[in-house]
Specification:
The chain is mostly beta strands. The chain has three domains: 79 residues, Immunoglobulins (Immunoglobulin-like); 60 residues, no CATH class; 73 residues, Immunoglobulins (Immunoglobulin-like, Sandwich), CATH 2.60.40.10. The chain has no helices and 27 strands. Strands 7, 8, 10, 11 and 12 form a five-stranded antiparallel beta sheet that branches. Strands 15, 16, 18, 19 and 20 form a five-stranded antiparallel beta sheet that branches. It has a four-stranded antiparallel beta sheet with strand order 24-23-26-27, with no helix packed on it. A hairpin with a 2-residue loop joins β13 and β14. The protein is rod-shaped and about 130 Å long.
Length: 300
């Protein structure tokens, strides 16, 4: 291009106004791919002098893109397991998805991942690294997904801990399995943190939060309506209660019923000396709407 009427003053005369520039625009062909880079340079001639080479300029043809990632589960939360996948926008040709559990990196870069060892209230998230040539951000964070639901619960009414209803149960003390403790209720005989692992009707396994318990060996259901002596004994116990129809049950520490009978007697004797070994047992007496308990000890 030649600008024959462009007369700039000599820089020795007017330095400020001796500078000039050329402004132009190009129409990009519609078939030009996103991210195409164009290299431009120019040679400028003044009169008959050798050209002045302008700096090279790279121009990238782009409509700015914002990458995005959305994560969501593709399976139900069951037995500490759940599967997630993602949908992405403007991710480029070779995106990298990084997954996190409670903010800690999970060793996988797949856009679909199976999580194990997950618990209620855990948070799953991801980041997307896009290699789109026109991305305005290389890395973006996904939405956060919190595992919700209701874990099994534990309640206490002397002398036993009771789990919320399920199909099967397994009790733990300080994260150790309690042998034989597979009933809905368990009678604690030691101080510590109790948990229950349940299986629900769909076959999924869930574990409760820890239930701190301080064992004193004393009944908080003492009543003038129930007296048991001698206690401890070799297996024979004299029981004194009030009048009326009563249901008598002897439980072991797992909450299992070992002996059950009904009586109208105010005083009676229970003899378990030839039935049970030495240990701690629990006597329950149901009288109408009231239930009375007593911890009994067999020493043989």
């Amino acid at each position: 291009m030649a600008f024959r009427s462009n007369l700039l003053p000599d820089s020795n005369v007017d330095e400020t106004n001796s500078h000039g520039y050329v402004e132009f625009s190009l129409k990009v062909k519609s078939i030009t791919p996103q991210g195409t880079s164009i290299n431009n340079t120019a040679q400028i001639y003044f009169d008959n002098n050798n050209p002045i080479n302008a700096n090279a300029a790279w121009i990238r043809i782009c409509t700015p893109e914002t990458p995005a990632i959305n994560i969501f589960p593709v399976s139900d939360f069951c037995s500490g397991r759940i599967s997630f996948t993602s949908t992405m926008q403007n991710q480029g040709t070779n995106p990298i998805v990084t997954w996190y559990l409670n903010g800690s990196w999970i060793a996988t870069s797949s856009d679909t991942v199976d999580f194990n060892g997950v618990f209620f209230n855990d948070v799953i998230s991801a980041t997307l690294n896009s290699n789109s040539a026109c991305s305005i951000s290389d890395s973006v964070a996904s939405n956060q997904f919190q595992i919700t639901g209701t874990p099994p619960s534990i309640t206490y009414a002397w002398p036993q801990l009771t789990s919320s209803p399920a199909v099967s149960y397994l009790w733990f003390l300080n994260n150790q399995v309690i042998p034989g403790a597979t009933s809905q209720s368990y009678i604690p005989v030691a101080t510590g943190d109790y948990k229950v692992r349940i299986t629900d009707s769909t076959g999924c396994i869930f574990t409760s939060f820890a239930f701190p318990f301080v064992y004193t060996g004393l009944s908080d259901n003492n009543s003038e309506f129930l007296k048991v002596y001698p206690n401890p004994s070799t297996g024979k116990f004299k029981v004194e209660t009030s009048e009326g129809n009563k249901s008598i049950v002897v439980l072991d520490y797992t909450g299992r019923s070992l002996l059950q009978f009904n009586t109208k007697e105010k005083s009676f004797t229970i003899d378990i000396s030839d039935k049970f070994s030495s240990g701690i047992y629990f006597l329950t007496v149901r009288l109408g709407e009231n239930i009375y308990y007593e911890r009994i000890v067999v020493q043989q």
